[in-house]
Amino acid sequence: MSMVKEFQEFAVKGNMVDMAVGIIIGGAFGKIVNSLVADVIMPPIGMLLGQVDFKDLAVTLKDATVDAAGAEVAAVTLNYGMFIQNVVDFLIVAFSVFLMVKVVNSLRRKQEAEEAAK
Length: 118
Fold this sequence. Notes:
Elements: H1 3-12, H2 14-48, E1 59-62, E2 65-66, E3 72-73, E4 76-78, H3 80-117
Antiparallel strand pairs: 1-4, 2-3
Helix pairs in contact: 2-3
């Protein structure tokens, strides 16, 4: 079998197309979740913490300095606000995927039960 024909069979298989659609939808879904967290969930939490943009919360480990040549050396910071925001993003995505898998499994069990009843 030629390499071109083998690749064509691989690329056209149903599973490959389903996976591609899933990746594209997943990317778009990730943007929606990021917006939900950054624009809807985190602002009230930041307001509770003193009207701070939550992703700007950080601990400065070393202040910015100027070296002997006059160039500014950036500060070293521990950006825990951004980390917490990413954890919230992940939890929302993971919970959403869990719900989708639960629905798909429920529909699959219902379909199997109907087929077994026939």
